[in-house]
Amino acid sequence: MTVSESDHLDVERIREDFPILDREFDGTPLVYLDNGATSQKPDQVIDAISEYYRTYNANVHRGLHHLSQEASIAYEEAHDTVADFIGAEGREEIVFTKNTTESENLVAYAWGLRELGPGDEVVLTEMEHHASLVTWQQICERTGAEDKYIRIDDEGRLDMDHARELITDDTQMVSAVHVSNTLGTINPVSELADIAHDHDAYIFVDGAQSVPTRPVDVQAIDADFLAFSGHKMCGPTGSGVLYGKRHLLEEMEPFLYGGDMIEKVTFEESRWNELPWKFEAGTPNIAQGIGLAEACDYLDDIGMESIARHENELAQYALERFAEFDDVETFGPPVGEKRGGLVSFNIDSVHAHDLSSIINDYAVAIRAGDHCTQPLHDKLGVAATARASFYIYNTREEIDVLIDAIDDARQIFG
Ligand SMILES: Cc1ncc(COP(=O)(O)O)c(C=O)c1O
């Protein structure tokens, strides 16, 4: 199946795969613009999960019976599919976790707690999601290391001069979000990786908003670690990934202990299993892993380049529409500059929460709040923003519906 038409997505065709998009509320069709929080799931993914439960449900790695063998093969091959999807060398570099947050914590605990100490520094950006910001903040507090933040400019771009100033020989880890979930900024992570590596530091890339929406090749970026969540890319909840360079994962101690992650256990000591199982203790999210692999195949068939173009086009269109109104403030790079498929905005007279609740009456789903970037919102001088975030099945017409709904909210609030 190829659903992209040269450089444009065949959105009408794609929408047929998503049963939830047919929903109506009081006769009004759903307009789902909350994809930054989680995407909808196509039939192909729902069917793959359902087929596992219906026909070969069993625990993996433990049984010699047919069902367990089938489940084990499917689960292990899911790691291969994900490895291909992000250009990793093989399944050894792909650890299944439950989400981006767990992947961040895995590295922070397994690597950070052992390697960091007083005098060491972790460099983050001012636009980090709490998943990385809070995690590294805590690890720094526990180890005596210091966390530092690369500034952003007035249009939400990373100040690379400041990055070069902050990243020094004291830096042990740079943790940077690839695409900001609040600003839509696409950060130059491969440039950051070069700077980090020049100082013998590692780079952890938060790919939660980038892997679902554009081609991401971990070797091209030269990421040491990269995390993302399956549920934001047509996969099920409970499916997350930590990519790590093989030699780094080999050197690291496990994060969680227990069954499956061991090779040999005696009363005296235990030896760890080979990669990636060393980091997957206990019964994993089998159905979710299988569903995630199906989601990777689904997105691959559409074409990640086409998806990135579609995302950018919708964001540009939304920015242009918002620019028609004097009372709307948008955040992040201005119209004309490439960005991720989301726009955060505020309207002078209407609080973001009120706005999101009123436009829900029009069956338009957006998000309001701090989007797990409270320090960034403090910096922007706002307590909350509304955010419309787009995906492969969204259209310009849906953005028009959003704009009309906002107009009505404006009338209500005078
Ligand atoms: C940039 C970014 N990082 C991390 C996360 C955390 O993802 P999860 O909640 O799936 O762990 C999100 C989720 O919104 C995100 O947008």
Automatic annotation (TrEMBL):
Keyword Transferase part of the UniProt annotation: yes
Domain Aminotransferase class V as annotated: residue spans: 31-402
Superkingdom of origin: Archaea
Cofactor(s) essential for the protein: pyridoxal 5'-phosphate
Enzyme Commission number, as recorded: 2.8.1.7
SUPFAM superfamilies for the chain: PLP-dependent transferases
Keywords, in A-Z order: Pyridoxal phosphate, Transferase
Alphabetized GO MF terms: cysteine desulfurase activity; pyridoxal phosphate binding
Catalytic activity: (sulfur carrier)-H + L-cysteine = (sulfur carrier)-SH + L-alanine
GO biological process: cysteine metabolic process
InterPro entries hit by this protein: Aminotrans_V_dom, Cys_dSase_SufS, PyrdxlP-dep_Trfase, PyrdxlP-dep_Trfase_major, PyrdxlP-dep_Trfase_small
Pfam families: Aminotran_5
Stored NCBIfam families: sufS (TIGR01979)
Protein name: cysteine desulfurase
